[in-house]
Target: Ferric siderophore reductase C-terminal domain-containing protein
Amino acid sequence: MTGAEVVAALRAVAGLGPYFEIVTDPAEAADPTWRPMPEADPARLADLTGRYAERLGTGERRVAASILFQGLASRLWSPMLAAAARGIVPDLTGLHWRWAPGAPIALWLAGPAGWRVDGDAAGLLHRSVVEGQLVPLRETFREVAGLADGLMWGNAASALAGALRPGLPAAAGAIARELLAREPLRGTGGFGAKGFARRSCCLYYKVPPGGEMCGDCALLPR
Model:
């Protein structure tokens, strides 16, 4: 499929909100602040995570790392799931990111390309998002903060469920459920009468002053 079709699809889903935006303007190549995504520099990620921990008011780097990983997963899943539900899965090979603690996570896709959904949207998304982005990100985050696999994939699953916003085609729900049935997301959580519930904790409750829990937290009574 053409790059123009991918650009049009991403522009359409960006209208759903800031979490759904991936910039495709080639002029962004002149901006040196963009970094290749997935981030593969442990030193840079450690610095960002440390500064983020300070901003959150926690002395635990792993808490900040967990929340940042979930934020990145949300930024990946939201536009990708929305585009897939409309029949197009962008290729994230040219993806870049830009972020500083306190700022929103920005994404830019250089040389847009992708695939037209042929019946296996979940498979295409798994290849592009899970294998291409989240798996290598997981390795870097583990090196930086020693986060457990169960926590990280629980964060990714929670981010996927959170991407199911009003305004998405009905196909989005079926695609998300199929992804949750595949490794490494299998067993990380599921949908029930009260919505999605995960089986691990993202550690957000440790952010001062403490006590706050996410709506899908495994620590909440169900």
The chain has one domain: 3-206. Residues 3-206 form one domain. Residues 61-85 form the longest helix (25 residues). The longest strand covers residues 95-98.
